[in-house]
Amino acid sequence: MTVKAIRLDQQDNVATLLSDASKHQTVEVIDDQNQRVGSFQTLQAIPFGNKMALHAIAAEQPIRKAGYDIGRAIRAIPAGELVHVQNVRSSRVDIPDNIIEQIIQQMRIETE
Amino acid sequence: MKQHFQGYRRANGQAGIRNHILILAIDECAEGIAQAIRQKVSDCVIVTNHYTCMYGGNEELVNIMIGAGLNPNVAGALILNMGCGSIDPALIAAPLEQAGKPVRRLSIIKNNGTRQTIRQGIELAQELVAQAAEVPVEPVSISELLVGVKCGGSDTSSGIASNPAVGRAVDALVDAGASCVAGELIELIGCEDILRQRAVTPAVADKLERLILDEERRWHVPGTEVETMSIGNSVGGLTTLEEKALGALHKTGTRPIQDVLRITPQGIEQPQAPGMYLSETSHLCGASGMHFAALGAQVILWTTGGAGFSNPIVPVIRVSGNASLITEDIDVDVSGIMAATQSVDQAADQVLDCLDRVIDGEQTAIEEVGFAYCSLYQKDQRLETLIHSQPV
């Protein structure tokens, strides 16, 4: 079955996975009108409900989801990478570092 | 979307989508008597003040009870009190009578106790039901509709499916001239900048930011951490607090915010013209239902993963995008967005279709069950004094 992800706004640089994707899997991205946006390769496993970078995002660039800034990249994020606590920080209230560690462990996020 | 709904026209000019008789037990000890009356008279809904029979900062609750009685879905009210408490039933009856609503009062001690009050209560409630049956139904402009918007029991599907779908529906409603009101300011921490841009005036923007800050203080007494994100939220895919907040914000659509309606001991602010509003309505589900009732909302759109919340005065339309939790309790299934078989606009149309049917009298998925809880909620007045003692 094809793995799909949804990009909620045209300006978004991430899409949300609608099912689990494994490493190097092709993901078909759709928009909110259910129109195909394109195919993208994952660089790592990305679980359902999580976000994938649709193109390269430079360090300090905003992450845009559903037309809004949801945080900032803390390092360069290549297209196809999981966009989450290991490479993004809040502009408002950060999650404490030890909790971020726990999230990375629980989700078995590849950080290299 | 329709431009009119079949409404029950009230004496004060407002129009409801339901024709309920409200039994208002303004003291908790009158609850059993209210239930006994309701068992014998259909079309009655009960609101009980479970807090206390004293004032002591309870004026906010009194105002919510008055607001609930004034809700256009209420055709008339029977007010019960024990007779030894401080809350004067005349104070609650007066604004309802002024609005031309039929009101009856029973004071239990004066009416020779429980059995006699139940007997009289049944007679009075039946009279009120008969009077309600005379209320004319007429086509009412959509501009007289106020829709409450709320999320709860949220999961990963909420931010992707149900909240965006309801947000689009809210925009369509506002564009058609209706009004929508959302609350839960605590869930909007991190959205202040976006919301400020949507506010119609700088004064509304400032009010909005101040009230979100108040709510943050209320739930974050100095010395404790405000609960923002759980590890479960993060594992589910939420990366930052603003992402979580934006998921909740989505359901409010994108249209300009006319005002933020305050709910205080002094009174409850009402929408003054059609449009999109925010309010101090609680993020607690049961409490939000009564807040929406007191604001005058005729119907609520509720986004959720699973099911849960309902209200006897204001029908709740449940919208879910989680295919594994869709049961007969859910009114609108937007799980097609999650399955990539449906667009957000198509899902929004589904929400509006359901709303069209409910405002024309069709019951929501669980409305016919006849049971729904109501929680009266008020801010702790001691805490209010404390948080406002600091400079804002």
TrEMBL record, chain A:
InterPro entries: SAF. It comes from the Bacteria. SMART domains: SAF. Residues 12-89 form the SAF domain. This is SAF domain-containing protein. It comes from Oceanimonas pelagia.
Automatic annotation (TrEMBL), chain B:
Transmembrane segments: none annotated. GO terms for biological process: D-galacturonate catabolic process. This is UxaA family hydrolase. PANTHER family: ALTRONATE DEHYDRATASE, ALTRONATE/GALACTARATE DEHYDRATASE. Keywords: Hydrolase, Lyase. Residues 7-132 form the D-galactarate/Altronate dehydratase second domain. The keyword 4Fe-4S does not apply. One of its GO terms (molecular function) is lyase activity. The lineage of its organism: Bacteria, Pseudomonadati, Pseudomonadota, Gammaproteobacteria, Aeromonadales. Residues 142-379 form the D-galactarate/Altronate dehydratase C-terminal domain. It comes from Oceanimonas pelagia. Belongs to the UxaA family.
